[in-house]
Specification:
Blueprint: H1 3-15, H2 21-32, H3 45-51, H4 56-68, E1 72-78, E2 81-86, H5 88-91
Antiparallel strand pairs: 1-2
Helix pairs in contact: 2-4, 3-4
């Protein structure tokens, strides 16, 4: 992990200060877990839950809350399995394109 990665993770941890402990744990798990080229964590919810000592239903419910608050987004779907990644909000990326007046 580079110094930039550590700084980004510390900033993410600070940005999630208003969330519940379980919500923060889910966000940080997605931030720290290996991803594919699209930034998606390609691990099952059951395995992710086990990594952090959460039951699968609690993990699923918490991840849904994190998705609804805009911290995670669906990246891909393979059959009935959905893969998620940190959203631009979580990464601190400005995705708003300023509009210019037509001339």
């Amino acid at each position: 992990m580079t110094s930039d990665d550590k700084q980004r993770n510390l900033e993410l941890l600070q940005a999630t200060a208003g969330m519940t402990a379980n919500q923060r744990l889910v966000v940080m798990l997605y931030a720290l877990h290996p991803t594919d080229r699209a930034g998606a964590v390609t691990e099952t919810a059951a395995n992710l839950a086990a990594l952090v000592g959460m039951s699968a239903p609690v993990f699923s419910r918490t991840r849904k809350q994190v998705i609804e608050s805009g911290w995670l987004e669906e990246s891909d779907r393979l059959a009935h399995i959905r893969y998620y990644r940190l959203s631009p909000k979580a990464l601190g990326v400005n995705v708003v394109v300023p509009l210019r007046r037509a001339t």
